[in-house]
Amino acid sequence: MSSRFAALAQRDFRTLWIGGLFSFMGIQMQFFLRGILAWDLTERKDALGLVYFVFGVALLIATPLGGVASDRLPKRAVMLVSQLGIVASAIGMGAAVLTDLIEFWMLLVASVLQGTAFGFFGPARVAMARDLVGRENVGNAISLQSLAMNGTRVFAPSLAGALVGWSVFGLGPTYVVAAVLAVLSWITTAQLPNPPAALSGAARPFADIADGVRYVRSIPSIRNIVMTAFAVLMFAFSYVSFIPALVEGEFGLEEQHVGLFTSASSVGALLAGFWVAGLADSPRAQMIMTLAGVLFGVMVIALGVAPGFTVAVIVAVIAGAGTTTFQTLSNTLVLRDADAEFQGRVQSIMQLGFAGFGMTALPLGVLAEQIGLRPTLVIMGAVASIAVLSYGAVSFLRDDEPVDMLRDSTVA
Questions:
Q1: What Cα–Cα distance (Å) separates residue 270 from each residue in 205, 266, 298, 299, 360?
Q2: Torsion of CA 138, 17, 116, 225, to 10 degrees
Q3: Are 348 and 75 in contact (CB under 8 A)?
Q4: Pick from 115, 21, 182, 147: which is nearest to 354 by CA?
Q5: Longest C-alpha distance within the chain, in Å?
Q6: Is the pLDDT of residue 166 over 80?
Q7: 3-191+202-399: CATH architecture
Q8: What does the pLDDT average to over 391-409?
Q9: Helix/strand/coil (H, E, C) string of 82-105?
Q10: Which backbone phi and psi does 92 adopt, to 5 degrees?
């Protein structure tokens, strides 16, 4: 099998990958539908930000606990339980829309439920991939998982937009489709092996979280990437929160164009995913990650000055490639350097960047209401670009200590 798909030669990883394909498809559809509903119910940018803000708060609280659960409990069990929350979110929202009882506060409840579920699901899934393929193929495995996620970002928004615009379907049944996909993911995940937990001993969740933070801080190669990823996700990646406002509010287009714009970003992400899968484990990964992060920030700035929808779509393709390359390689590098008993917690700390993205969406939405969406996008992209350039200066002008020299000094 080609080196780009080496991890898929392992049967259990294929099962994990297929389950992820179903899960990502349903989650991406829910994200798309949530943004459409929030804009249709309020037509306010800060309301869009609030929906993602409560998602981020829930993710912020749940993710550290999810990291501990991934290290202390069998990872398959953690994934199965957390996926039930994703199923419940889709079914509840679908029922509310179908019965015409939908209100804005329900979007907030659904966001909290999904954020909590993903806080446990995300770290367990990535850590499980490393368990299944080993350290030598972890980069390829993460790249292929990213490929699945970005492939669904191409098709899920377009499918959801088409179903919403189809008179026979609409919002409610589209949520039901998302729920069915989540159920299929649960069934597939149940077929995975259930290896014992990596961390034994008495349960002490808050002490375990603190140990994980100290572990990350003690290893410069991990710490610097985590801090940079936070800045990129909290600022540049927050542009996805405002896609409905950009397409419908700034360009004056319809809901179907929101799906088209999102899919354009995902096309770039998908193409980058194929490319990254073949070099995620190469010595050039750190340099490529840095260049991709800067590119992504610059493209968010470009969205802020794009003269029309066509140019914005082209920019979105490049932005999608940049963010996928950066996220895939940053996850690969930190997970490759992390010890087995810290995998879940390290991955949960990385995932906190997504919580930050949700939380910064509200203040950024308020800022957009005050100064306009376009200037806000420029600021967001500039902050991310400066953060990645700073990382590059630190990493390439001063070599970090070898990870192996720091193992013994880490708090276990």
A1: 37, 6, 19, 17, 26
A2: 20
A3: no
A4: 115
A5: 63
A6: no
A7: Up-down Bundle (1.20)
A8: 57
A9: HHHHHHHHHHHHHHHHHCCCCCHH
A10: -60, -45
Task: Give residue 202's pLDDT.
Answer: 60
Three-class HEC string of the chain = CCHHHHHHHCHHHHHHHHHHHHHHHHHHHHHHHHHHHHHHHHCCHHHHHHHHHHHHHHHHHHHHHHHHHHHHCCHHHHHHHHHHHHHHHHHHHHHHHHCCCCCHHHHHHHHHHHHHHHHHHHHHHHHHHHHHHCHHHHHHHHHHHHHHHHHHHHHHHHHHHHHHHCCCCCHHHHHHHHHHHHHHHHHHHCCCCCCCCCCCCCCCHHHHHHHHHHHHHHCHHHHHHHHHHHHHHHCHHHHHHHHHHHHHHHCCCCHHHHHHHHHHHHHHHHHHHHHHHCCCCCCCHHHHHHHHHHHHHHHHHHHHHCCCHHHHHHHHHHHHHHHHHHHHHHHHHHHHHCCHHHHHHHHHHHHHHHHHHHHHHHHHHHHHHHHCHHHHHHHHHHHHHHHHHHHHHHHHHCCCCCHHHHHHHCCC
Cα separation of 228 and 223, whole Å? Answer: 9
**Both structure tokens of 307:** 């003269």
Q: Cα dist. 381→49, 69, 293, 376, 410 in Å?
A: 17, 34, 10, 9, 35
Q: What is the pLDDT of residue 407?
A: 43
Query: Inter-axis angle of helices 11-42 and 171-189, to 10 degrees?
Result: 160
For the chain, which residues make up each domain, given as ranges? 3-191+202-399
**What's the full length of the chain, in residues?**
412
Assess contact for 355 and 234: CB atoms under 8 A.
Answer: no
Reading the block at residue 311, the tokens are 């140019």
Whether the Cβ atoms of residue 247 and residue 261 lie closer than 8 Å to each other = yes
Cα(132)–Cα(135) distance, integer angstroms: 9
pLDDT of 43 reads 76
Q: How far is 105 from 123, CA to CA, in rounded Å?
A: 28
Torsion angle defined by CA atoms of residues 289, 294, 297 and 302, in that order, rounded to the nearest 10 degrees: -130
pLDDT exceeds 50 at position 113: yes
> What is the mean pLDDT of the segment spanning 321-345?
80
